[in-house]
Design a protein that fits this description.
The complex is a heterodimer of chains A (467) and B (259). With 467 residues, chain A is an alpha+beta fold. Chain A has two domains: 196 residues, no CATH class; 222 residues, no CATH class. Chain A is built from 19 helices and twelve strands. In chain A, the strands form two sheets. Chain A has a six-stranded mixed β-barrel. In chain A, strands 6-7 form a two-stranded antiparallel ribbon. Chain B has 259 residues and is of the alpha/beta class. In chain B, the strands form three sheets. Chain B has a six-stranded mixed beta sheet with strand order 8-9-10-5-11-12, sandwiched between helices. Chain B has a four-stranded antiparallel beta sheet with strand order 4-3-6-7, with helices on one face. In chain B, helix 4 runs parallel beside helix 6. The longest helix of chain B has 21 residues. The chains are: A alpha+beta (467), B alpha/beta (259). Chains A and B meet through helix 1, helix 14 and helix 19 of A and helix 3, helix 4 and helix 5 of B. The complex binds adenosine-5'-triphosphate and magnesium ion. The site of magnesium ion (MG) has 3 residues of chain B, from helix 2.
Chain lengths: 467, 259
């Protein structure tokens, strides 16, 4: 019993020891904050990635794709019909984008050209949540070009005043069609805009209604490019710069036709089928089942991957980063452990005579060790508990703290332009917090083992004579 | 030795190796002890000391400074082990017991009083007095008997004249009060023998006198067996018997003669 009484009294009277666990407290708080922020980033990023990509993607190794995609769709239905919510055929290929500036210059960019059927694609993933107009308002994904855009074009204006039987009429109509093609394209937001550091708004270089040119590979024996132009009808803004600066969505049938992979009437090839899985279904299992059945249909042609596998390196990088940070921070707590060791050794020296008395009164070696071990445990629980509360509070008020620092220093600590997040995302994972706290307690208790052992080994007579 | 009988009325808690002991009798033969420092330096202190104390007896150990009085007391109280020689408590050899049993005997059979009191500074006087029981009992036993044990400890404090100081920390007590608290602590464990190492050494004459009177009275009233180490002949004279340590050996004589 005396162990707990003494341990309790030491706890209440020895503030220097409390100071020694402040470092543990700070370490725990830092670890909780860092992990919560990283988990928040990873989580938000995964969310976004997952939103853009469908759960499972069936694709051909060949860029030119497969014509029998309706059969593949029905195979998917047959194999996993009860697990699959929707499928969408798409055609993805690299290409070049030309943006024509008002001054006659043009900007060229490397892009990913994706042919989709908007209704189908909207059913797989959160695609429809990322398509917006020039003002940032969400619009229904589609490629229809409003009729008045063509009539409002320079040629369109002239056309209005030109009688039908005028020889110019046909030429003007053709020019209006060239100035505002009747095929729409949804362009990545970062492709269509230029962001100047410090500017509040982004400048559109390819506003809605403007014409863009696209070049992409044609199918055939010789590598050849096809050329096509489109009218910008919407912008794709997912928050993942990797996509927003690469993706250009165009009508699937048109892309098939231009790549000489479709007749323009419905028959054509695709090189991807996006598969949306029902909620709660294990996507890895669906992927491996589809891979098996498609392999048996056509070996070494299809590749089935979950969205996580497709984004493997990125997610892996975040994981590794988090792991390394945790190792470093735990080392900091380990350093704090040595502080505890030093202060505990001091306390043991200071208590030498008391230890002698305790032994004279019959306290056992184990009992004396127990005093200091439970003291170490109590201190570390106090320190880690305080650290946990502090960490959770910081996480909870992180964005308020950030705002405060911003207003104090006049700089933005967390620049939403860079990160695409309006505020710092956080996610508190209870198991991570528990792991951090238990790990820190273990370190602190370990640090008190040696002083406790030394105290328990003191010879009673020498301890009593100690001055 | 006439008091030996009266002692048997006391309740002694010790049941040692299954055998109930109603009277304590401590006996040491041929105790040798030398302190070693390094490989070469050796300080011989005791050269073969024989010592006996009967139940209910009060013995004073005197001797020059450095003659080994404290050393002898530590050996008798199992705080240290002799190089040679045997110690018997009620006929049982105790100097070779394993650590656990030695701890148990220190807790139950012996009560120590030191020159510099050695109270725990973090605990109140009452808690200091309860220390032997706190060490003896597990938390469960403690909580189930708490009120009774507190009452007992308080009555010991009462007995040493400090009933009203129970809530005070040692730093708030005078030397004499601290020493009386230490005596109450030694008594609270219901020991068979009190071992006091210069209990009046740090006190002025008056408080020393009151502490000695307390010990004397306890010896008379309860037949408490006591070994008191002292410099002070006036203190020693109050004992039943005086043992003088001289050059590592003992001579024993009656207090009357010592003058
Ligand atoms: N740990 C030790 N190492 C070496 N010598 C020691 C040690 N402890 C005690 N001594 C020596 O043993 C001798 C006896 O010491 P002890 O404390 O028993 O004497 P004492 O009779 O109690 O003296 P005092 O009356 O001053 O208290 C002394 O000479 C002391 O120097
Ligand atoms: Mg001494």
């Amino acid at each position: 019993m005396y162990k707990y009484l003494l341990c309790w009294r030491y706890l209440k009277t020895r503030y220097i020891a409390l100071a020694s666990v402040i470092s543990v407290m700070l370490g725990v708080a830092t670890m909780i904050v860092v992990n919560s922020v990283m988990a928040g980033f990873a989580h938000t990023m995964r969310d976004r990635l997952h939103g853009i990509l469908a759960d499972v993607v069936v694709e051909s190794y060949d860029l030119d794709g497969f014509w029998d995609w309706r059969d593949v769709q029905s195979i998917i239905q047959k194999e996993c019909g009860d697990l699959v919510e929707a499928t969408a055929p798409t055609m993805e290929t690299f290409g070049l984008l030309k943006i024509y500036l008002p001054d006659g210059q043009a900007v060229t960019r490397q892009v990913m050209v994706i042919g989709i059927r908007p209704e189908d694609r909207a059913k797989t993933g959160d695609f429809s949540e990322f398509v917006q107009d020039e003002n940032g308002k969400l619009i229904k994904p589609g490629f229809d070009v409003p009729k008045n855009w063509q009539t409002n074009s320079p040629a369109g204006h002239l056309l209005k005043d030109t009688p039908k039987d005028d020889p110019l009429h046909d030429i003007l109509r053709q020019q209006a069609g060239e100035q505002v093609p009747d095929r729409g394209a949804i362009v990545g937001y970062a492709l269509a805009t230029i962001h100047r550091p410090g500017a509040l708004t982004d400048d559109f270089i390819a506003p809605a209604g403007s014409r863009i040119g696209l070049a992409f590979p044609k199918s055939g024996r010789k590598p050849e490019a096809a050329y096509d132009d489109y009218t910008v009808v919407g912008f794709f803004k997912s928050g993942m710069s990797e996509y927003d600066s690469m993706h250009v969505y165009v009508p699937l049938e048109r892309l098939q036709y231009m790549r000489m992979l479709g007749d323009g009437l419905g028959a054509g090839a695709v090189n991807q089928i996006q598969v949306q899985v029902k909620p709660g279904v294990n996507i890895n299992e669906v992927a491996s089942r589809l891979q098996r059945v498609l392999d048996s249909r056509r070996p070494l042609y299809f590749r089935v991957a979950t969205w996580e596998q497709k984004q493997g390196p990125l997610l892996e990088a975040v994981k590794i980063e988090q792991f390394i940070l945790n190792v470093l921070l735990f080392l900091i707590i380990a350093v704090a452990g040595f502080g505890i060791l030093a202060i505990f050794s001091m306390i043991v020296v200071e208590k030498t005579r008391d230890i002698g008395v305790l032994k004279a009164l019959g306290a056992s070696t184990g009992g004396v060790r127990g005093i200091f071990l439970s003291y170490g445990l109590a201190l570390s629980i106090v320190g880690c508990g305080a650290g946990m509360i502090e960490g959770l509070l910081i996480v909870h008020y992180l964005n308020d703290i950030e705002n405060l620092i911003n207003s104090l220093t006049g700089t933005r600590v967390f620049n939403p332009d860079i990160y695409y997040f309006s505020e710092i995302p956080t996610l508190v994972e209870p198991w991570t917090v528990a792991g951090i706290v238990l790990g820190a307690i273990a370190i602190a208790v370990t640090a008190s083992v040696w002083p406790a052992q030394r105290a328990s080994r003191l010879h009673p007579v020498q301890a009593l004579r100690f001055e | 030795m006439t008091k030996t009988e009266s002692v048997t009325t006391m309740i002694l808690p010790l049941s040692f190796k299954g055998q109930h002991i109603m009277s304590a009798h401590l006996h040491a033969v041929g105790l040798k002890k030398a302190y070693r420092k390094g490989r070469s330096l050796e300080v011989p202190v005791l050269h073969g000391v024989d010592f006996t104390i009967e139940a209910g007896e009060m013995v004073a150990i005197v001797g020059a400074s450095g003659s080994g009085k404290s050393t002898l007391l530590h050996l008798l109280g199992l705080l240290d082990g002799p190089d040679q020689g045997h110690i018997y408590l009620n006929g049982e050899r105790i100097d070779q017991l394993p650590d656990k049993k030695r701890d148990y005997l220190r807790n139950t059979a012996f009560g120590f009083v030191f020159q510099s009191y050695h109270l725990m500074p973090e605990l109140t006087a009452l808690e200091n007095v309860m220390m032997p029981q706190l060490i003896r009992l597990s938390p469960w036993q403690w909580f189930s008997q708490k009120t009774q044990l507190k009452r007992e400890a308080a009555s010991w404090l009462e007995r040493v004249g400090l009933g009203h100081r129970g809530k005070h920390k040692p730093s708030e007590l005078s030397g004499g009060e601290m020493q009386r608290t230490a005596i109450a602590r030694a008594l609270a464990g219901n020991p068979q023998i009190i071992l006091a190492d210069e209990p009046t050494g740090n006190l002025d004459a008056e408080s020393g006198e009151s502490v000695m009177k307390l010990l004397r009275d306890l010896n008379r009233e309860r037949g408490m067996t006591m070994i008191v180490v002292t410099h002070d002949l006036s203190v020693a004279r109050q004992a039943d018997r005086i043992v003088r340590l001289n050059q590592g050996l003992v001579e024993s004589f009656n207090p009357g003669v010592a003058a």
